[in-house]
Amino acid sequence: KGASWNVEFEPTVAGIQRFKKQASANSEEDKFTCKTDKNDLKIYFGEPSTHSGNFVFHPGVSGTLNRPWMWPVKVFQAIMDLPGEKTVRISDAGATEIVVDSGLATYRYLLPAQAK
């Protein structure tokens, strides 16, 4: 409550599938980082000095993320697997809210960020 959301979007099925594939390819990583690159929201796994990967999770977002917060892969993926319409809001202050509207109920998940 009272958070200022820097980025807000509705994830696509293709974006969620890419997330699952990258999480599988980088299975040794239990956290990921979100950053904006121009108008694209990119997700990064690992460090450049080790096995790493990144991809565009959602194109055409407004707002920017400047801080390298980390989020838990398994928790995020479990929420993305839930049935229903999803809205993701990310704050540069260190929080993510995912709203899932199943058609019968609306669920709000708040994920606190982890620093490196």
Your description of this structure?
- The protein has about 120 residues and is an alpha+beta fold.
- Helix content is about 20%, strand content about 40%.
- It is built from two helices and eight strands, in the order βαββββαβββ.
- It has helices spanning about 15-25, 75-80; strands at about 5-10, 30-35, 40-45, 55-60, 70, 85-90, 95-100, 105-110.
- The strands form two sheets. It has a four-stranded antiparallel sheet with strand order 1-6-7-8, covered by helices on one side. A four-stranded antiparallel sheet has the order 4-3-2-5.
- The protein is globular and about 45 Å long.
- The two termini are about 25 Å apart.
- The relative contact order is 0.23.
Residue share in helix? 10-25%
Order of helices and strands: EHEEEEHEEE
Question: What characterizes the major β-sheet?
Answer: 4 strands, antiparallel
**Mean pLDDT rating:** 92
Q: Distance between the terminal alpha carbons, to the nearest Å?
A: 25 Å
Strand content: 35-45%
- State Rg: 13 Å
Give the oligomer, counting copies of the same chain as homo and different chains as hetero: single chain
What topology emerges from the helices and strands here?
Layout: E1 7-9, H1 13-25, E2 31-37, E3 40-45, E4 53-58, E5 70-72, H2 73-80, E6 85-91, E7 95-101, E8 106-112
Antiparallel strand pairs: 1-6, 2-3, 2-5, 3-4, 6-7, 7-8
Describe this structure in a few short sentences:
The protein is of the alpha+beta class. The protein has two helices and eight strands.
